[in-house]
Amino acid sequence: MTNESSEPIVQRLSRMEFKPLREVWPDEARHFTPWLLENSEYLAESLGIDLELEVSEHAIGAFSLDLFGRDVTHECPLIVENQLESTDHRHLGQLLTYAAGTDAKTVVWISAKFRDEHRQALEYLNDLAGDNARFFGIEVQVAVIADSPPAPLLNLVVQPSDWRSQVSAQRSSAGLSNSKAAYQSFWGQYLDQVHEQHPGLTNVRSPQGANWMNLNFPRKGTYITSGFIRGGKLTCELYIDVRPALRNSAIFEALLRNQTELEAALGTKLLWDRMEGKQACRIRLEHDASIADEESWPSLIDWLMKWQVAFKQVFYPAVQSLDDSLWTDPEFG
Predict the structure, then answer these.
(1) Which residues form the DUF4268 domain (predicted)?
(2) CATH number of 16-172
(3) Pick from 10, 200, 244, 269: most CB atoms within 10 A?
(4) What percent of the chain has pLDDT over 90?
């Protein structure tokens, strides 16, 4: 039997419409930036790389960078400057200031609309930087179809020349060195167990091929981090890098005044390191370890989980209770 009807069957289609950005994110700092921090996969997909967004409102001198993280594909710092309006010269200046202040090699500017002169500026920077850094421009939109929920669109409008070819070559190259592969495997196993046994301990999902990993961020410029260091040690530490150095020292000294209480809460003595002559300060716990001894990884992971949980429980409230002036007072730079 044949279908006598010659009429084509056409599925009903709807028209895509675009909503004003501020209907979805009324305030850039309070709504859009936290949303992107929690939904970094949209940015990773737009750029075509693996990345981790670690902290929002990262202090750079007297200013605050919207988002700081890592370009995992290229193993380098990554920064993001957000703007829910058309691009302007002020944000371009901020972008370059933040890039210099963080030594970022992957620099992303997100805006509602890129003016031609700012698109050309990023292209010029890409030409100058060559393989040493990469600058991206992304236009953000919010689309709806009929009664669907709003859908974010991050459209890449500026990128280095032959960017997709570069990413493809990076991913298909010989691969990680033995040490990087070991670190990536260790952190992968650690994160798998953390998310299974302690959900909510960290938002980090992607392991990197570096000897360290930032896992929690109590407050601007402070990090609960862990890493393999020289001398055969694995560390769990609070790293203070608010900038400038005078501000870091003031925060460190404020915590040091509560050393007895903090160590009692943790049940152990800590290494309090002012890191004289350097930018940052740190409060550290160490454990004998070697990344080359793969049989020891399960015990190292157990040790690290125990102390990451404890550091978060103790140092989150300790840092958050410090006076705001330590972050804002011009006396500290």
Answers:
(1) 183-317
(2) 3.40.1350.10
(3) 244
(4) 50
Q: What is the pLDDT of residue 4?
A: 54
Mean of pLDDT values over 181-186: 88
Share of the chain above pLDDT 70, in %: 90
CATH 3.30.1460 fits 178-332, yes or no: yes
Encode the chain in three state secondary structure. Answer: CCCCCCCCCCCCCCCEEECCHHHHCCCHHHHHHHHHHHCCHHHHHHHCCCEEEEEEEEEECCEEEEEEEEECCCCEEEEEEEEEEECCHHHHHHHHHHHHHHCCCEEEEEEEECCHHHHHHHHHHHHHHCCCCEEEEEEEEEEEECCCCCEEEEEEEECCCCHHHHHHHHHHCCCCCHHHHHHHHHHHHHHHHHHHHCCCCCCCCCCCCCCEEEEECCCCCEEEEEEEECCCEEEEEEEECCCCHHHHHHHHHHHHCCHHHHHHHHCCCCEEECCCCCCCEEEEEEEECCCCCHHHHHHHHHHHHHHHHHHHHHHHHHHHCCCCHHHHCHHHC
Which is more confidently placed, 209 or 310?
310
